[in-house]
Amino acid sequence: MKAFVDRDTCIGCGACEMTCPEVFSMDDEGKSVPVKEDISENLLESAQDAKDDCPVSAITIN
């Protein structure tokens, strides 16, 4: 599974990074970026929680 962030939609609130810092980080522009190429099984639930917590639905996980 991989995480993707729509940078045009992201508002930089940081909720994803607070929920799952192993997968998401904020870049120099204040936007979320995935920091892992592939999400391991042990992080999948936390990454899904981050996706669900995003107030603008900028995250997808496939």
Automatic annotation (TrEMBL):
<dbReference type="InterPro" id="IPR051269">
    <property type="entry name" value="Fe-S_cluster_ET"/>
</dbReference>
<keyword id="KW-0813">Transport</keyword>
<dbReference type="InterPro" id="IPR001080">
    <property type="entry name" value="3Fe4S_ferredoxin"/>
</dbReference>
<protein>
    <recommendedName>
        <fullName>Ferredoxin</fullName>
    </recommendedName>
</protein>
<keyword id="KW-0408">Iron</keyword>
<keyword id="KW-0249">Electron transport</keyword>
<comment type="function">
    <text>Ferredoxins are iron-sulfur proteins that transfer electrons in a wide variety of metabolic reactions.</text>
</comment>
<dbReference type="InterPro" id="IPR017896">
    <property type="entry name" value="4Fe4S_Fe-S-bd"/>
</dbReference>
<dbReference type="Pfam" id="PF13370">
    <property type="entry name" value="Fer4_13"/>
</dbReference>
<feature type="domain" description="4Fe-4S ferredoxin-type">
    <location>
        <begin position="1"/>
        <end position="29"/>
    </location>
</feature>
<dbReference type="InterPro" id="IPR017900">
    <property type="entry name" value="4Fe4S_Fe_S_CS"/>
</dbReference>
<keyword id="KW-0479">Metal-binding</keyword>
<keyword id="KW-0411">Iron-sulfur</keyword>
